[in-house]
Amino acid sequence: MLAAQPGNVDAQLGQVQAWIGTGDLASARRQMQDAPPAVDDAEIGQQRQLATIWTDLREDTKALAILRALLARKTGPDAQSWRDAARLVRRDDPQQALDMYAQAMADNGLLAPSQAAPRDNRALTLASRETAGDDWLRRSLRSDVETLYQQENPTLTVMQDTGRRSDGTPGISRLSRDTRIAHLDAPFAGGLGWARIEQVSFDAGRFQTDGNGAYDEDFGSCDLDLLQADNSRLRAPGCTRFVHQRRTSGAGFAVGWRTLDDRWNFDIGHTPSNYVVGNWLGGITLNGDLGRFGWGATVSRRPMTNSLLSQAGAVDPRSGISWGGVTANGVTFSLGYDQGGRDGVWSNWSWHRLTGHNVADNTRARAMVGWYHKLIQRPDMRLDVGTTAMYWRYQKDLGGYSLGQGGYYSPQRYASLSLPVSFAWRNDVWSLRLDGSVSVSSARTSSISRFPDQALIERVIAQLEPQYGPLQLDEAGLYTGDSSSTGTGYRLYGAVERRLGDHFVLGAAGTLQRSRDFSPNSFQLYLRYTFKPWQGNLPLPVSPLVPYGEFR
Questions:
Q1: CA dist., res. 516 & res. 414, Å (int)
Q2: Cα dist. 490→168, 356, 524 in Å?
Q3: Which of 16, 374, 497, 517 is the most exposed place for a label (fewest CB within 10 A)?
């Protein structure tokens, strides 16, 4: 290529980059086609600049040709050109890109030449650990290697997730739940795919029975007051079936996929077999930017996991009618601001229609906003504080467990304010996370019939009429009544991971939550296996898998 006056070339390159910076790609392309800057082969900085311009104009082939020629002529270390070339081939040939990153790290002194060719994966990932004091090039090299290597490294996680609710009524809301998960992450179709199998066991405890083995708790139609033809009151006999409310499922499955830039994300699955009410579940999310704000939009169908009834469904002990298995079907929009500084804000807005088998339909609208401040941001430690406000509205209170109710918390008004704090720390073999929050809340519920589906309870009554004659519901005590409450609460969460070698990581996590009428605890234990060696960063903060039913 002919030599040109450096000042003129710099001006040309600067003008093209200015057009690109303002989004005027048409002018930049026209300049590069009609009068491309004549960059001398010996001008390494200008050659890189020219390659960057072609990259910004989505002419990766031209950019890569410039960088390959530059690397073929190099007489000394050139980590930046190796890195830039790796970025251009990483989508189509990730293994070649990792080889290029290894060469870049060797040229930068992060690897020995013998560890770069042939590539030593253990040494490469060890060199990818984030380190305080790195300059911009080293930070980018380590970050690029970590991201690409983990994208190309299939990972299998097996986990036991245990939940216990110590409050509530035995047989109804005092729920123990155990979920066993086998989850595989792997590169797929130019993005990242995953697949999992889950098996769930529920135990809501035993109803308290009388001397005849019967119970009349407000479950199904077991608590049933009727009027006979002469207006005399009749208390229907208590239930004797299903005294112990428990269920062990078969296998459920789910699969998902996302683009490498996380712009698109979707999943689909089915609840485990042997649920009384099974459901197809899933969601699709689109993420993007709106100026300096990040946004996301999700369309989803998710289960309500508040109780055995809402999640898996139940059978009325008196009539054999099944009901429950509630899903939330709707849209969620999120908007947040975080430019990498000390402060950030997030918000979440959603509307869902709640439907279930033989359960009255409901609607839910929720708004949540939060602010956080990063007190400490280091490669090995983070400390964040903030505040979160929530406001929920449900059309109906369907939190009961009688036939037609849903068994999920659904106040007509709910508002809360919480103050969260989060701490995370890691070293070479340990990663620790501690979260805590205190909150104040208020709620109001409106009166509703304990049997909101009149046609459904009439089916039960019809089964009793051959024995007792014409019957109808006794209106006395049929409605739940209005109520309101205020309260305080707290939540504590801890998680830890321990590296066991090149392939295995052992993790555990636990949550303690206390508020008025709601005191659940949970514990997770898991083992993660990477198919290829991984000596890079442990996650900061620790983020264990969540059961598919908890996806949002």
A1: 14
A2: 18, 31, 20
A3: 517
CA distance 128 to 149: 10
H runs (alpha helix) in 345-471 = 454-468
CA torsion through residues 450, 452, 456, 459, sign: positive
Q: To the nearest 10°, report the CA torsion of 6, 12, 14, 19.
A: -170
133 CB contacts (<8 Å, ≥6 apart)?
Answer: none
- Could you tell me the CA-to-CA distances from 232 to 34, 228, 229, 531 in Å, in that order? 97, 5, 7, 72
Cβ atoms of 510 and 523 within 8 Å: the answer is: yes
**For 380, phi and psi rounded to 5 degrees?**
-110, 0
Return the amino acid letter for 180. R
Instruction: Label the pairing between strands 293-303 and 244-258.
Output: unpaired
Question: Does the reported pTM lie above 0.90?
Answer: yes
| Structural tokens at position 77 | 């270390």
- 140 CB contacts (<8 Å, ≥6 apart)? 83
DSSP 105-151: HHHTTSS-HHHHTTT-HHHHHHHTS--TT--HHHHHHHHHHHHHHHH
Our CA angle for 224, 226, 228, nearest 5°, is 155
pLDDT 10s per residue in the chain (552 long)? 334 444 588 888 989 999 998 999 999 999 999 888 888 888 888 999 999 999 999 999 999 999 999 999 988 999 999 999 999 999 999 999 999 999 999 999 999 999 999 999 999 999 999 998 899 999 999 999 999 999 999 999 999 999 998 788 899 988 999 999 999 999 999 999 999 999 999 999 999 999 999 999 999 999 999 999 999 999 999 999 999 999 999 999 999 999 999 999 999 999 999 999 999 999 999 999 998 999 999 999 999 999 999 999 999 999 999 999 999 999 999 999 998 899 999 999 999 999 999 999 999 999 999 999 999 999 999 999 999 999 999 999 999 999 999 999 999 999 999 999 999 999 999 999 999 999 999 999 999 999 999 999 999 999 999 999 999 999 988 998 899 999 999 999 999 999 999 999 999 999 999 987 788 899 999 999 999 999 999 999 999 999 999 998
How far is it, in rounded angstroms, from Cα 541 to Cα 521? Answer: 21
User: Is 66:46 a contact under the CB 8 Å cutoff?
Assistant: no
Give the Cα separation of 397 and 450 in Å (integer).
10
Angle at 391 between CA 372 and CA 545, to 5 degrees: 60
> CA-based Rg of the chain, rounded to a whole angstrom?
30
Q: What are phi and psi of 405, to 5 degrees?
A: -80, 170
Checking DSSP bridges between strand 225-228 and strand 401-402, what pairing results, if any? unpaired
C-alpha–C-alpha distance, residues 420 and 552, integer Å: 20
Q: What phi and psi, each to the nearest 5 degrees, are found at residue 207? A: -70, 150
Q: Can you tell me the distance from the alpha carbon of 241 to that of 190, in angstroms, rounded to the nearest whole number?
A: 53
Q: Which residues contact 24 (CB under 8 A, 6 or more apart)?
A: none
